[in-house]
Amino acid sequence: MEKRNAAAQFAAGPRGWLYFDANSIGAMPKAAPTRMARLLAQWRRLRRRGWSDADWLDAPRRLGDKLAPVIGARRGSVVVGDSASVNLHKALTLALQLRPRRAEILSESGTFPTDLYVAEKIARDLGLKLKLVENPAQIESAIGSRTAVVYLSHTDYRSAYRHDLRAITRLAHARGALTVWDLSHSAGAVPTEVGAGQADFAVGCGYKYLCGGPGAPGYLYVAPRLQSKLEPAIQGWFGHAAPMEFEARFRPARGIQRHVVGTPAVSGNVLFEAALDVFSKMRISGLFARHAALSQLLINLAPEELGLASPLDPRRRGGFVAFRCRDAKKLVAELERRRVVASSRPPDIVRFGLSPLYHREADVRELARRLKNALSVAG
Questions:
Q1: What residues form DSSP beta bridges with 180?
Q2: 178-192: per-residue pLDDT in tens?
């Protein structure tokens, strides 16, 4: 599939509307309704035989292999299932298994709150310290001999600042620590390179730039070099080596499969796979280059009244572009009246999520025109 045809694989919104909320929820693949209708027909016809006669149980690994190239991972290192928060709990627990003599989880105070809640609970239960830095520039100097794991959002959810995964991971390893990365605001829009960057663990959600649909399953990446060293953080039926043997004792499956826990979310997987099949036909590096060009165009065309809150360097910018505005919430409401969907974050951030799959230069230029008009009212 050529890049120019990717947009044709997604359903358009109501006529005249511009959706720049790919950082919240991506567009619907046109194939999704047909895929869901097929599943409903299977459900009606097969009932319990669907588990054996359909491909429902294979989905966590199958989708993981389709997602792997998008995040720069090897086949067999990604599994789809559960939410990003549950997978973060798994990843942090797994990392701490490997560093039992260290007493600290290192992160940022400004990372996404739910991630901090997960890390805080794990630290409290295990008697560890959750050390938080205020500024991304402080991360490298904060990694010390007590640091067991460095957990970071690859892209900051407010400013779109993107960490250098490769450099931070290299430094963490040099100081004896492991890394866990949340890719939610990066995957599908910008390079993450978890394999080449030697990341130990990564997690993310499936409903933003990956276009997996509302509440789409999340995913877990475990570096192949670590998989044989780890017992699963949560022992569940479908992580067993032979789940249909109904053994009383847990015997972990090989590789990434051991980190699957409960019954796969079949309908969510069907929708997510419709999107991943679009990605599988694309040149991923070309998508990332397109995203950089679209985001730069928006920065160039944005009204002067807005202050850029995101990094100017595209290598340090994640999936969306953020600007500062005196009353960001009011501006977003004014844009909505002009049929533009964006988002704000307190105290003064307005965000525009760009997808390289379906956004066009013409969309960005029209956004800039409506943005200028909205600012004349919102101030």
A1: 151, 201
A2: 999 999 999 999 999
pLDDT at 379: 60
Question: Token match 């999936």: residue?
Answer: 319
Concerning whether 360 is annotated as a catalytic residue, the answer is: no
- From the candidates 258, 351, 352, 358, give the one annotated as an active-site residue: 351
**Is residue 125 annotated as a catalytic residue, yes or no?**
no
Q: How far apart are the first and last CA of the chain?
A: 43
Q: How far apart are CA 169 and CA 171, in angstroms?
A: 5
**Of 20, 5, 24, 15, which is closest to residue 294 (Cα–Cα)?**
20
**pTM for the complete prediction?**
0.96
What residues form DSSP beta bridges with 128? none
Catalytic residue from among 35, 208, 258, 290: 208
Q: How far apart are CA 87 and CA 233, in angstroms?
A: 10
Position 73 pLDDT exceeds 80: yes
Residue of 19, 20, 112, 323 marked active site = 112
Single-letter code of the amino acid located at 45:
R
Active site includes 317?
Answer: no
Residue of 163, 190, 158, 161 whose CA lies nearest to 292: 190
What pLDDT band is residue 1 in, cutting at 50, 70 and 90? very low
Catalytic residue among 207, 209, 323, 358: 207
The β-bridge partners of 324 are: 307, 349
18 beta partners: 340
Is 112 assigned a catalytic role?
Answer: yes
Catalytic residue among 21, 65, 115, 182: 182
Q: Where are the alpha helices (DSSP H) in the chain?
A: 32-46, 50-53, 59-71, 84-98, 113-126, 139-142, 165-174, 224-227, 266-279, 284-301, 328-337, 361-378
Is 207 a residue of the active site? Answer: yes
Q: What is the residue-averaged pLDDT of the chain?
A: 96
Confidence label for 5 from pLDDT (cuts 50, 70 and 90) = confident
Confidence at residue 4, expressed as pLDDT on a 0 to 100 scale: 52
Strands 219-222, 201-204: pairing is antiparallel
pLDDT tens digits, 20-29: 999 999 999 9
